[in-house]
Amino acid sequence: MDIVFEKVEHVYNARSPLARRALYDVNVAIRSGAYVAVVGHTGSGKSTLLQHLNGLLQPTSGAVKIGEETITSHKRPNQLKPLRKKVGVVFQFPEHQLFEETVEKDICFGPLNFGVPEDEAKRKARELIKLVGLSEDVLVRSPFDLSGGQMRRVAIAGVLALEPEVLVLDEPTAGLDPRGRKEMMEMFYRLHREKQLTTVLVTHSMEDAARYADEIIVMHEGTVWGHGTPEEIFRDADKLTAIGLSVPETVKLKQQLEKRFGVVIPSPCLTLEQTAEAIEQLFVKGERP
Amino acid sequence: MTNHLIIGQYVPGHSVIHRLDPRAKLLIVFAYVLIVFLANNAVTYALLSLFAFAFAALSRISFSFIARGLKPILWVVLFTLLLHLFMTKEGDVICQIGPLSVYEGGIKQGAFISLRFLLLVWMTTMLTLTTTPIEVTDGVESLLGPLKKMRVPVHELALMMAISLRFIPTLMEETEKIMKAQAARGVDFSGGRFSERMKAIVSLLVPLFISSFKRADELATAMEARGYRGGEGRTKFRQLAWKPVDTVFLAAVALLFALLCLLRS
Fold it and tell me: Which secondary structure element, helix H or strand E, spans residue B208, and what is its range?
């Protein structure tokens, strides 16, 4: 499902003394099947942008096209529910949305709201609990007896249970330990490929953006500052630093090496693996007479 | 909803009313609320209205802003007015509409009661518009101070009030966040059958309660970690200072009281 933003503007508390413009002149297209990372400083409009993806917010001017549906300031689809089923959103700290007596009921909550039969929903819950890396006997426990990390996995399973075509992730690893972080990001990447999802990841981690995303959207002060492949975005480190963002550590290492040894490294060095390879190339070159 | 209701909202300013001691303001408003009931004729009501208008004028908050805040209670006022128009049977009949007849006393009563109601809300709104919640709490604590001798936990009550006020915006924010998260999972908060609505509300309230309890627990720990042990021997960051102007305003209320006693019929 393609998502297209056309001149989108969003003003909170419009027509009141408290009016605050959070987004303006946003023109961006997210093509079906892409893994897109949205990065930006706190308050740059990332979260507002994200809430336009499933009609939680309507633009105050401009249009958002999600698949067949178009949402503008004065028109929204009569039925937002089908849209909400197609676009699954994992909010920041999703464990705060748990409320049922058992983990199984909580995972089934979404599908049941969308009219999935109960036995089908339960079957899905069993499948998903394993997918998010928990064992099946967690299903009968109360979600509030679980650890923070486990709760988050359950909440994510609850969103995945909707079988969305587009998965929107708002800093899904905030507050997790490094290992949990890596496991979760790998899980989302696996899902992205296996289920041919369109994934939109809002993140502060440039490393994650560089490693997983096909495209990066850089938000700055309410509008799109840059949009391109990780290689394009991270090419100019100084410009990113100027708006309070940084480049991945590996790109910094590459720049240091280039400066120190006066060489040009052709690789973009977006991941550890790429960087190791690039350094190996340097050594090989160096050995030549 | 919050856009229309201005009762409880603070409008920053430096007017003489803003700078009054919160204790003085609390006493003025409390006394006013009591003496409003003394008025029973045109002169006394005019006097009360004059006082309320003067109070608002001194605060330099625009009348239109205060009037906008009175809008939500307009329906209640209108209802009272109509009720009195048709129910009070005193004096001459003014006009007859079918089986209903309007008496002279009804018009008078209706107008007075509505005005009384508006004045009450007007003055209490003025209090919250010109006084920060923290000031109100400090004022209440100080005024109730003598009750400490009777073992009333005044400080604790004031603290509870301060904490509740502090967490209203947080709770609103949290509610909005959880509503959005559940809406993304297919909950419809605006419609549906009764059973669906109940389920929707449960999916909002349970997370809200859980995070509130958690927050209360964290707050208690944080307070203890910083050595909080209750009101005993505790000094205040903001010292309340009674100024001559506070006495003058209280004297004005006393004068109003005296005039009302004289002029009421």
Answer: helix B194-225
- How many whole angstroms separate alpha carbon A144 and alpha carbon A175? 18
Cα angle B147, B149, B152 (rounded to 5 degrees) comes to 50
The answer to whether B215 and B167 have CB atoms below 8 angstroms apart is yes
**What CA–CA distance (Å, rounded) separates A38 from A32?**
16
**Residue at token pair 């004028």:** B57
Distance (Å, rounded) from C-alpha B22 to C-alpha B106?
39
Class of domain A32-43+78-245 as given by CATH: alpha beta
Asked if B180's CB is within 8 angstroms of A91's CB, the reply is yes
Answer yes or no: do A97 and B181 touch at CB < 8 A: yes
- Preferred mutation among A16, A81, A96 to probe B, highest tally of B CBs within 10 A: A96
Q: What chain B residue is nearest to A84 in terms of C-alpha separation?
A: B184
Cβ–Cβ below 8 Å for A85 and B203: no
| Beta-bridge partner residues of A69 | A66
The Cα–Cα gap between A127 and A163 comes to 12
Whether A96 and B203 lie within 8 Å, measured CB to CB: no
Give the contacts of A11 (CB within 8 A, at least 6 positions apart): A19, A20, A21, A22, A60
Residue ranges in chain A modelled with pLDDT below 70: 16-18, 76-78, 286-289
Chain-chain contact of A91 with B181 (C-beta, under 8 angstroms):
yes
3 state DSSP class of A234: coil
Per-residue pLDDT tens for B188-219?
887 778 888 888 899 999 999 999 999 999 99
Looking up tokens 């509008």 gives A223
H or E stretch covering B102? strand B100-103
Q: Are strands A198-202 and A166-170 parallel, antiparallel or unpaired?
A: parallel
This complex has an ipTM of 0.86
The radius of gyration computed from the CA coordinates of chain B, to the nearest angstrom, equals: 24
Residue among B177, B185, B203 whose CB faces A159 most closely: B185
Structural contact between residues A61 and A7, judged by C-beta atoms closer than 8 angstroms: yes
Four-point Cα dihedral A157, A161, A166, A167, nearest 10:
-10
